[in-house]
Amino acid sequence: WCLTTHLTIFATFYDEFVDALECAGANAISLEGLSRMLEFKDWWYRPPAIGLWVLLACLTALTSCGALRDHQLRRSGLWRDSFFLDVTTKGRPSASLRTVVLRPHSVASSLCCPQMDSMLEKATLLVVARCVQSVVACKHELAVETVRRHVWGANGFVKGDLAAQASKKWRSERDVVCDGIGEALQRFAALGFAGRFWIVLCAMNPLASGLLPIFESSAAKRMKILSDRLLGALMVSTLLFSVSGIVEGASSSDSCIRGGFEPGRYLATALISAVLVTLPVNAWGFLHRRSFLDKELTDATRRWQWFQVQALDIIFWLSGILYSVVCISFIATFLADLNEKEEWKWNLTFTILVARLFIIKPLLIAFCMALAFSVVNTWNPSIALVGHSRLELDLTKTRAASTCFSMDTHECLTHLSSDAADKVLELAQRGISIEQLLHFYEKLGEGGVMPEYCPQTSTTHDVVRGAIIPLSTVERSESEGGGLEGCAYATKVGSSV
Hints:
6 strands
């Protein structure tokens, strides 16, 4: 009479319910995990916790390095916060550090060369610009974003740069950077794939983007945002693990441990975590970028705006510290409740997140940029040879000069006009002999052309002003109007080489 099968389904439900209670997954927000974190110390020195402590130490060191770089930048005089108050922004489309970029070729190119507006052409110029910016950034120790916003980009040179208006030292350095853009393009084009890959990697890695000068955002802030992105991704990973039950808690029995190796699931968890955190954290950092304040505003308005800037800085750091504390608390609670036999799953996800930010992403960007430039240089080599009007680069003169250096004298002169060839010959043959040089030296000092000459203290400038110029003047003939005129000293003494 008691033999039956229709009630076995309830036994199945009961068994599943018991298994669910016994196999409780590690939870980042469980009271059990919080109590284990506070009461038990064994999880502190397990591999997942050690990885977390090492990461926190490295991120703290990077943020400290960012603060030190900001201090060095202020001491060098290249940029200080006071420069945000020393410009006139009236009549400009934007008062921020997003300087005005005039595009003189945009209208002409759309009328004369409609193909310039194609997506392919724009992508080509963008690739060339990014690669050249990488060369310039590495050479002058600037961030690629600084070169793009304040010097030169895919639409040519930046005009109306507010940063150059505010900082004299940056204005002079910017002129040097501008003069080397064409050379940077030719240098990058002459490299092989490995050389291009290395330059882009050095310029676009997270450490270079975080520690090199970007005027509108301090290095300490950028490194703090980098830290928040990584900590936030780790926190989201713990939440995904907690919700999905991928890993088991410390109280779970060995029978609950899932067998098999599923790297795709952990890779997906890491990538989803990184994507969910990157956008809001970057947006939060973007809102706290500095902007210029017009010096023609009233003092009261300027003081109020500057107070807002300082208040936003305080809010940024307080909210950033609170965010970091919350992330670390979630991660620590999860690790305290993590089953020791499931630690490898967390270690794998942790490694993927760190490697993605500091290794995989920079390597992938460098590889793609080097490959893209190789394709562009093969498809349109004229850009690296003669430049491009939209990039505002004309490399024909530089190319002609470099061609002459590789030729002998007579072959090079055939490429020049008659007047230029005559001047080149004159300059090349101008000089003085050793005997004439000694005679000139005898004229210096007491009783000579420069009585105040002293070998220990007189500079080249002193000798030029006190001796060379007086000795190189000649009298004009009466037919030429008389008087004095200057000529080269070597021409006057009549020597040629």
